[in-house]
Design the sequence.
């Protein structure tokens, strides 16, 4: 099963799934990050809902007052170690992949 929130140093990596679109669940996500006493950059991996498009990754700063919505950005360059780990988790979770928006040709390309 794919983890929806992983803390990697000062970055929280939040993975969208078929059942969890983090940008539509900001209140729930805020509560979870508060409970973890997290402050820093939140990187959203939206592979499940955006596919392999250029907007697969987005980010927003999170602090004591919650998300700073003015800091929202689509990320074109993601730390390669984080991207590799995200890809590995996705490739190893068939339920995750079946629930994603990836077409059969995208799935084939992604699995290579």
Sequence:
């Amino acid at each position: 099963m794919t983890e929806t929130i992983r803390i990697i140093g000062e970055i929280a990596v939040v993975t969208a799934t078929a059942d969890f679109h983090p940008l539509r669940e900001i209140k729930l996500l805020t509560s979870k990050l508060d409970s973890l006493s997290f402050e820093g950059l939140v990187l959203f991996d939206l592979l499940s809902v955006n596919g392999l498009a250029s907007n697969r990754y987005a980010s927003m700063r999170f602090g004591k007052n919650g998300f700073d919505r003015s800091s929202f950005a689509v990320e074109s360059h993601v730390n390669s170690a984080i991207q590799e780990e995200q890809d590995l988790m996705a490739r190893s979770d068939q339920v995750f992949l079946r629930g994603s928006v990836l077409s059969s040709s995208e799935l084939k390309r992604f699995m290579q």
About this structure: The helical segments are 26-35, 47-50, 80-91, 94-99, 104-111. The chain is about 35% helix and 30% strand. The mean pLDDT is 94. The beta strands are 5-8, 11-15, 40-45, 57-63, 66-74.
